[in-house]
Amino acid sequence: MPTHAEKRILRHRPEEVFQIVADVHRYPEFLPWCVGARVLSRDEQKLVADLTIGFKMFRETFRSDVTLQRPGMIQVQYLDGPFRYLNNTWKLNPVPQGTEVDFFVDFEFKSRLLQAVIGTVFNEATRLMVRAFERRTMQVYGRNSAAAPRPSEVPSTPG
How many domains does the chain have? Predict the structure, then answer.
């Protein structure tokens, strides 16, 4: 029953961080151990997706229902796959430096073997996962977009 909670400040606006976390089909491009992602349905507030994780000799696919509460929260509800349960929440709170990311994950595999193997690297894997989202946000939006003026804040020049 590994659980991990982490808070981190990212120098990006909540909307930008939200977009990266909600862009599930791109996870294999940057997320460690994510070897496949397929979005089965999507609208503005919800998506259903299959993610395939690969670690050593293991390869498992699971389905999740993801609730998108723009721009401050993403909640993952496990539907089917190798877990007994999976709870995952991203809370994105605006702060002067950008966004405070409050990440929580709790899960248990059905297989004791898989639980034992993943359990040994779980904390490191979740830290790497949060860091991968941070790096992806920097890659897509630049290193410090929270400090950049928004279009409405850019002074107009006299013509």
Answer: 1
User: For residue 19, is it within any domain?
Assistant: yes
Domain with 134, as residue range(s), is: 3-143
Q: Residue written as tokens 């930008």? A: 16
In a domain, 24, yes or no: yes
- The domain that contains 108 carries what CATH number? 3.30.530.20
Going along the chain, which residue ranges are E strands?
3-10, 34-42, 46-55, 58-69, 73-80, 83-95, 98-109
C-alpha distance from residue 38 to each of 47, 108, 121 (Å): 11, 22, 25
Torsion of CA 16, 72, 101, 52, to 10 degrees: -80
Contact 130, 103 (CB under 8 A): yes
The answer to whether 52 and 37 have CB atoms below 8 angstroms apart is yes
Do 76 and 87 form a contact (C-beta atoms < 8 A)?
yes
Rounded-to-integer distance, Cα 86 and Cα 98, Å: 28
Q: Which pTM does this prediction carry? A: 0.84
Q: What is the pLDDT of residues 36-90, one digit of tens each?
A: 999 999 999 999 999 998 877 889 999 999 999 999 999 999 999 999 999 999 9
